[in-house]
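Researcher: We're reviewing a set of sequences before deciding which ones to prioritize for further study. For each one, I'd like a predicted 3D structure that I can look through quickly. This is 21 kDa protein-like. If possible, include the structure in token form so it fits the rest of the review sheet.
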Amino acid sequence: MGRVSPLFLLLSVLYIAGIAKLTIASPSNFIKSSCSTTQYPALCVESLSVYATTIQQDPHQLVQTALSVSLNRTESTKAFVTKCNKFRGLKPREYAALHDCAEEISDSVDRLSRSLKELKLCNVKGEDFNWHISNVETWVSSALTDESTCSDGFAGNALNGKIKASIRAKMVNVAQVTSNALALINQYAAKH
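Model: Here's the predicted structure for 21 kDa protein-like, in token form for your review sheet.
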């Protein structure tokens, strides 16, 4: 058997190390690692993995995408609640709960939209970064409170039925996605 050249061994080791680095540092692994700190990691990975090519390994893009997902789901839920509010035969309490929920979701949409705009100003370091990211954290936290308030309006047995079940399911999903976005924002702020 012939001797293996040292150059061949060196190139082989570098090639294997390069493949290992690519495997470890993939966008999917970055997303999984980032999502592991959230309250709903499986949902976080599921909702962000489809954007892996956009996110790559950019923490700012990860947070921006998480906020966008939260905003999109909140807007979709707002449209659903508005549609439910037009149903005929609603009991006065159902109508009131739907009306209040629509207002809370509108506030949530507004706060998430403002957060996205503010996040774009976070590309600077220092005090400006801290100011902008603090605003983002506050508004996303407020949006999460709005979402919880909407769900609370459907508590109790007086509002049992399909509308309650549908809205609560959508609100739970929106609140979980928003909670995950907030966790990722907090993580991003802490690393800056």
